[in-house]
């Protein structure tokens, strides 16, 4: 501030930064005062026979308005198992988990930003727009800790589901499911890319206006995982949202990958994703007339006629590469023969939805792959470790499901008891606004006003000194 005040003029931008820092400092001081006074009340009201006072220890909490360093009392206690422990009653009251001493607001801010920007960009944005300074590695550490907790929650959910303790409340007669994978670059010498599996489930479409529809009750899961592990969590996540006993029909839309077929229940109706089906035709048949003929046969639901046509088409070729492509397309369609027609083309009649949702053609997975994973993780020269990429993929899936708050759910504090908080509120406010030294305290300048702001040339050093009471 001295360096700025020594200049002849100061811009409003500089003034804004100065006052912002002052306000953040005030918030830090008030928080420190509140926490230490609350800790004092806990000391006075504790069970003295159970908690023996052993002195104080300082710690630092990272908040959106900067680091708050405060002291709290440490106590010796005996747990129910007879083990001696040293505890901080204030920390137990706050219930700050082991994600570093990060406030919930700060953690939520990081989680929301990391789904859109790189770790470096998030660190820069936080340092510029909050009272906190943090490095890219600091952001990475927080996200990894939160991602690890998400993984732990998933394992607990899978265990509970296997034990029959997971029962969702949403009732639907039809469950639409889609699955696909996206390859991202890895930071490994032995493996250049890895596949993130993505699963999507929903119970229909909401009509949001003219030709505008939105998936209802989405469940999105993602991560690096084997087929069995992915299937176990996918089913657990679905059971956590839906009452699976009420589901009459399950439909799976996918690209025909073998791992996706392995995660389908025996009664699930499979259909080959129209986007991948049509893409395979166009990529393997270089002749527009032949592409049109195959598309027409599919449109007319003549599957056997289409296979006869493809065989004749292959036999008519002389170029080895074209023959290879034709053979590849035929094998792809043979492996997914039962899904070449969509559920609507098969004439499957779905029961009416109790909440009046609309049933439409499936095929939203490609868009969800982009919006959930690819947009954030596949481009901008990004490379990932298996562990770090897995954590971010799961956070991105939470966001797509509309459950991003779940990531920081365990950071929520138990809360301050209203009676105690009210008891110290006025003292904290008084302490924050009290003059730093004896005298008349802060006096507003009688004639102070912002000079030269009209022409944006800044204000003088003398005027600023008068405004802030120096």
Give, in spatial order, the strands making up the sheet with the most strands: 9-6-5-10-11
Share of helix among residues?
A: 40-55%
How would you sum up the major sheet?
A: 5 strands, mixed
Rg calculated over all Cα atoms = 31 Å
Mean pLDDT: 84
SSE pattern, N- to C-terminal: HEHEEEHHHHEEEEEHEHEHHHHHHHEH
Report low-confidence residues grouped into runs of 5 or more.
435-459
Helix count equals: 16
Shape: elongated
- Classification by helices and strands: alpha+beta
Give the end-to-end Cα distance, rounded to a whole number of Å: 12 Å
Q: Kindly state the number of beta strands.
A: 12
Question: What proportion of the residues form beta strands (DSSP E)?
Answer: 15-25%
What report would you give on this structure?
The protein is of the alpha+beta class and 470 residues long. It has a domain at 172-402. Helices cover 46% and strands 17% of the residues. The chain has 16 helices and twelve strands. It has helices at 2-5, 12-45, 89-94, 104-114, 119-129, 136-162, 227-241, 258-262, 274-284, 288-299, 303-315, 320-335, 365-377, 386-400, 418-433, 461-467; strands spanning 9-10, 52-63, 66-78, 84-88, 174-185, 193-202, 205-209, 212-215, 219-223, 249-254, 269-272, 459-460. It has a five-stranded mixed β-sheet, sandwiched between helices. Strands 2-3-4 form a three-stranded antiparallel β-sheet. The chain has a two-stranded antiparallel sheet with strand order 1-12. Strand 7 (205-209) and strand 8 form a beta hairpin. The longest helix is centred in the N-terminal third of the chain and has 34 residues, at 12-45. It is elongated, with a radius of gyration of 31 Å. Residues 435-459 have low confidence and may be disordered.
């Amino acid at each position: 501030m001295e360096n700025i005040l020594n200049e002849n003029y100061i811009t409003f931008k500089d003034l804004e930064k100065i006052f912002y820092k002052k306000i953040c400092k005030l918030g830090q001081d008030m928080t420190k005062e509140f926490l230490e006074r609350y800790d004092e009340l806990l000391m006075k009201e504790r069970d003295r026979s159970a908690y023996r006072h052993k002195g104080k220890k300082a710690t630092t909490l990272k908040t959106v308005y900067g680091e708050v360093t405060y002291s709290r009392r440490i106590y010796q206690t005996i747990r129910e198992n007879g083990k001696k422990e040293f505890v901080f009653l204030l920390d137990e009251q706050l219930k700050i988990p082991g994600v570093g001493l990060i406030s919930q607001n700060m953690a939520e801010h990081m989680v929301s930003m990391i789904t859109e920007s790189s770790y470096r960009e998030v660190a820069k944005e936080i340092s510029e727009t909050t009272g906190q300074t943090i490095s890219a590695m600091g952001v990475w550490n927080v996200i990894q800790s939160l991602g690890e907790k998400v993984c732990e929650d998933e394992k607990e959910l899978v265990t509970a589901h296997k034990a029959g303790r997971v029962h969702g409340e949403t009732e639907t007669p039809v469950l639409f499911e889609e699955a696909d994978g996206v390859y991202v670059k890895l930071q490994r010498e032995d493996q250049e890319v890895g596949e993130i599996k993505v699963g999507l489930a929903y119970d229909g479409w909401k009509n949001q206006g003219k030709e505008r529809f939105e998936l209802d009750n989405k469940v999105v899961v993602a991560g690096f995982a084997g087929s069995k592990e992915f299937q176990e969590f996918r089913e657990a996540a679905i059971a956590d949202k839906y009452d699976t006993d009420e589901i009459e029909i399950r439909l799976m839309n996918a690209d025909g990958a073998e791992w996706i077929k392995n995660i389908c229940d025996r009664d699930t109706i499979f259909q080959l994703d129209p986007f991948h089906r049509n893409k395979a035709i166009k990529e393997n048949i270089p002749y527009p007339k032949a592409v049109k003929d195959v598309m027409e046969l599919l449109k007319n639901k003549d599957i056997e006629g289409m296979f006869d046509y493809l065989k004749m088409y292959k036999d008519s070729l002389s170029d080895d590469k074209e023959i290879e492509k034709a053979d590849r397309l035929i094998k792809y369609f043979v492996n997914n023969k039962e899904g070449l027609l969509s559920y609507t083309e098969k004439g499957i009649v779905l029961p009416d939805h109790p909440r009046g949702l609309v049933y439409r053609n499936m095929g939203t997975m490609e868009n969800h792959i982009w919006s959930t994973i690819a947009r954030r993780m596949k481009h901008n020269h990004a490379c990932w470790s298996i562990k770090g990429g897995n954590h971010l993929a799961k956070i991105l899936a939470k966001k797509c499901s509309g459950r991003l708050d779940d990531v920081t759910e365990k950071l929520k504090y138990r809360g301050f008891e209203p009676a105690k908080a009210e008891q110290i509120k006025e003292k904290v406010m008084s302490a924050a606004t009290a003059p730093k030294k004896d005298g008349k305290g802060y006096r507003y300048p009688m004639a102070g006003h912002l000079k030269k702001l009209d022409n944006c040339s800044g204000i003088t050093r003398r005027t600023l000194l008068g405004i802030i009471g120096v």
